[in-house]
Structures are given as C-alpha cells and as structure tokens.
Specification:
With 357 residues, the chain is mainly beta. The protein has helices at residues 4-7, 38-47, 313-329, and strands at residues 21-23, 33-36, 52-58, 64-66, 69-72, 78-88, 93-102, 108-114, 119-120, 124-133, 136-137, 142-149, 157-163, 169-175, 179-187, 196-205, 211-216, 219-226, 231-237, 243-251, 262-265, 268-269, 272-277, 280-288, 291-297, 348-353. The protein has three domains: 12-102, Immunoglobulin-like; 108-205, Sandwich (Immunoglobulin-like), CATH 2.60.40.730; 211-353, no CATH class.
Length: 357
C-alpha cells in the first residue's frame, strides 16, 4: 500500500518507444537496405530524461545489427518482421517492428537516389539513379520517373521519362510541392527480361508562414528556413562566367515589410527587388555564379550581428558599414534591379534595396 503522503512524490516512467525508417521501401534480394533510427536517438537523448545506450536491430532473417544507422542485405525474397529495440541507461527498453517485403532480385535492376535533403516546397530536386545488367550499366534505355502521394486512392503520376547515358545513369529535375511522396523509377522490361522498379520516400517540407515558393537556376544546397526568426539561408553554386538567380514567393503577410528585407551574399549585402504580383510578393536577385553562401532576413529588422550570430565579426562590420554608407549617401535612391527567369507577369515594383559594392 502506498502512503498518501508519498503519492505526490511518485513520477511516471516513460519507456523508450523507438521510431525509424528504411530505404529503399521496395527492396530486392541483394539490395543494400538502410535502417535509420537517428532522429529518435537524437530527440530522446535531447530530452534529458534518460540516455539511449543501445539500439539493437533484428531483421527477421537471422541477421542483426547495433547502432542508430545500419545497413542490411536480404538474401532471399519474402516478408520479414524487422524491428529495433532501444534500451536506456535506466535499463528500460522498448521495441518497434514492421513487416518488410523483399522481392526477388533480377539481372536487370534500376536504382534511385535524391539530392541531400531537407527539401522545401518550390525547390528543384534532382532525381537520379542507374540501370544495370548483372551490375554493369545499361546505356540508351528509357526509365520512367513517377510520384505518388500517401493518400488513399492516389495513383502514379509521371514526372519524366529519361534515357540512360553510356554508363547506365539517368537524372531529372522535379520542382517539388509540399507533401509526403513515394517516388518510383520504372524500367518497362523487354522480350527477354521483366520490368524492374524501385521506390523510395521523398518528404517535401513547407516553409511555414510567409514563404510559399522558391526557385533558382543555381545548384541549391543546405536550404533552411527558420519560421521563428524568418531567416532563410542556403548555398548557391553554378558554372563560372554565368548568371544565377533566386526568386522567392512571399504571401502578403501584413507584418512583412519589403523595405526591411536584408540579403547577404558571402557576408555582404547585395541588391534585390520585390514585386507585387496578385496576392503575393516576389523577392528576386541575381549574381555571378560561383560558390556563394546566401542569408536572407525577412523579419524586417535588417541585417545585424544578433540576427546572424554565426557570421565572423569582420563580416558583420562590413554589413554595418555598408548599411550606414547607404543610409547616408543613397537613402532610398531607386535603382532598377533586373528580373530574371520570371514565370509570373510583372505588375509593379513595390520595393527595392541596393547596396553598391
């Protein structure tokens, strides 16, 4: 019997309940399947209630592994009950399991890959892969790339049909929209070999409030938007001697002040423009291609050391000096900013900002 005075001292025990995913989601015999519980591992340990000390995987075929990120090859087709058990430093544990269907391997096999994520709505995602015959690339064959949402009754929608190159590789660029997708690469087969396909999960995140679209002709990596601070940052890269551009669609948020936007490239402010189009703002700027780190402050507070704490002190000094110089010499001096690769009609230039360097 528990003493009434001690009831208030009792604490509820929370047992680890691991979650994980695997890739590809349609594995074949011999494929390398990646099992990932790192999100669970990191989030649980960050809570501080306890620390996960072991993650033990059982693949349903007699195989096992330990760790938050592991790989496994299935040697026969079938359905395998696969799971991971998490145990913390208190000795408490929990297990989660799923059935994984493994298909028969084929001589002609298609494989699939994506850019490194995360991916945001409006961002262009490169979908690639290769087609092989007994491990060697198969050239000049057609591969269909398709998408399907995780909605009941949804069907495959064509993204593109691409040809393999001399090494059996293929790729296509897909402009993503917010959602949870299954992406499939399909080779239709021929009179000798049956069709081959593989599919994987692609998650396209929303930016949250304010930002509703993003496009660029540069290779964009590390794209991240903090909806609290309203800071968007990414790396843009392209062939030397060519021009790059970024167009960002913003909803007409009453709290958004176009004149308060700050765009920094490699720690220095650059020229940009803001157009009014229908019920959106379009923020745009262009640059000479190279490898650039771009930081956009949409909070309306302007660039400051507090807004960009990761910038070197020297870079912050350049920003402050440039802003003061502009305010003193060319305060609100209107300069035209060339708009590139627009797919919406130009209505009017509502805001601008220029920083001659």
């Amino acid at each position: 019997m528990v003493c009434p005075a001690a009831i208030g001292q009792l604490t509820q025990i929370t047992y680890p309940s691991p979650y994980w995913d695997y890739s590809p989601i349609t594995p074949r015999v011999g494929d390398v399947v990646t099992f990932d519980a790192s999100d669970f591992y990191d989030s649980w340990n960050a809570k501080g209630e306890s620390t996960i000390v072991t993650l033990v995987w059982q693949f349903g075929d007699g195989g096992s592994a330990t760790g938050s990120l592991v790989t496994h090859r299935f040697s026969s087709p079938g359905t395998f009950r696969t799971g991971v058990t998490a145990t913390d430093d208190r000795g408490y544990g929990g297990t989660s399991e799923y059935d994984i269907e493994v298909r028969e391997g084929t001589q002609v096999a298609v494989y699939l890959s994506f850019d490194d994520g995360p991916f945001y709505t409006g961002q262009e995602v490169t979908i690639g892969g290769n087609l092989t015959f007994n491990g060697a690339g198969v050239p000049d064959e057609s591969v269909a790339l398709q998408s399907k949402t995780y909605v009941e009754g949804s069907t495959w929608i064509d993204i593109a049909t691409v040809k393999t190159d001399g090494r059996g590789k293929f790729s296509a660029v897909w402009k993503s929209v917010y959602g949870y997708y299954q992406i499939r690469a399909l080779w239709a087969g021929n009179s000798t070999y049956p069709e081959s396909s593989i599919s994987d999960v692609l998650i396209v995140q929303g930016f949250g409030n304010l930002v509703t679209g993003f496009s660029s002709n540069s290779t964009i990596t590390g794209l991240n938007f903090n909806s609290t601070t309203r800071i968007l940052d990414f790396t843009a890269e392209g062939p030397s001697g060519t021009r790059g551009f970024v167009n960002i669609t913003l909803e007409r948020d009453p709290s958004f002040e176009p004149e308060g936007v700050s765009v920094l490239m490699d720690g220095r402010p650059i020229e940009y423009g803001v157009d009014s189009v229908a019920d959106s703002w379009i923020l745009f700027f262009s640059y000479s291609h190279s490898l650039h780190k771009i930081i956009i402050d949409l909070s309306g507070h302007g660039a400051s050391e507090s807004a960009f704490p990761w910038l070197p002190v020297a870079a912050v000094s350049v920003v402050v000096f440039a802003v003061v110089a502009v305010a003193a010499v060319v305060y609100l001096k209107k300069r035209g900013v060339p708009r590139v690769e627009r797919d919406v009609p130009h209505v009017e230039l509502k805001a601008w900002r220029s920083f001659p360097l």
